[in-house]
Structures are given as C-alpha cells and as structure tokens.
Design a protein that fits this description.
This protein has helices spanning 42-53, 72-87, 108-124; strands at residues 25-34, 59-61, 66-71, 93-101. It has 126 residues and is α+β, with helices and mostly antiparallel strands. The chain has one domain: Alpha-Beta Plaits. It has a 4-stranded antiparallel β-sheet with strand order 2-3-1-4. Helix 1 (42-53) packs antiparallel against helix 2.
Length: 126
C-alpha cells in the first residue's frame, strides 16, 4: 500500500511507474500570448488554452494564467504544444511559466487552495 506523503517533509519518496520511471508531479501556471497584435489578446490566448484543454491533463483557466497538473514531461509537452499553436502562425510569442514540482503528491490544483481555505477558516475562530 503506498505511503501517504508528509506535506511538511523537505524530501519525499519519489514514486515510479511500472517501468521504474520517476513520477514527478508538477503544477504549472502558464500564460502564453503573442506580441504586437493589438490591445486585445483573447482571440490568440484562447487558441493556446484550447490546446491545453484538449491535452487531457487537469487544467483550469483564470484571469491571468492557465494551471495544468501532471507528470513533468507531460506538462512541458503541453506547454510546448500550446506555445507552438501561436508561434507556428508566425507570431512572436511570450511564455510566462511557473512550476511547482512536488514528487509524491497529486491532485494539488484542488488540494492547495483547499488547504489555504482551511487555514483561513481556522484562523477566523481565534
């Protein structure tokens, strides 16, 4: 039975797949947009977001970023594919990318905000 990771531990046991490859869970915040196309970018950003949504990886889009969760290799492949959607059309394309790489954990797109909400709620009872 897999051991539950300790959220407060500095290092985690790195799980592996059936072939022994390390499973490196990653949450990415990515913003992909072209330069020089005018003030409104939504038409272009939506093309990149569509690639991310079609990837099959868990994702969510907010006003500034699209968050993606999965194995590091899969996340980076999706970011590349979404970037190429614009770059292949000839647009100079900017990518802002932040990665939280945390072996041993999964479901962090939901768990991290839930933990923050729990801490805030506990503090309101003081």
């Amino acid at each position: 039975m897999p051991q539950t990771p300790d959220r407060n531990a500095v290092r985690q046991q790195v799980p592996t797949d059936k072939d022994g490859k390390p499973i490196i869970n990653t949450v990415a915040a990515v913003a992909i947009a072209p330069s020089g196309v005018g003030a409104e970018l939504s038409e272009y950003v939506s093309q990149a977001v569509a690639v991310i949504r079609d990837s099959g990886l868990p994702n969510e889009t907010n006003a500034m970023f699209t968050n993606i969760e999965g194995d590091l290799d899969d996340v980076l492949r999706v970011v590349r594919d979404a970037t190429m959607k614009l770059a292949e059309q000839g647009y100079r394309t900017g990518v802002s990318l932040k990665l939280d790489i945390r072996p041993g954990f999964s479901g962090q797109m939901a768990e991290k905000p839930a933990l923050v909400d729990e801490i805030i709620a506990a503090g309101q009872n003081d």
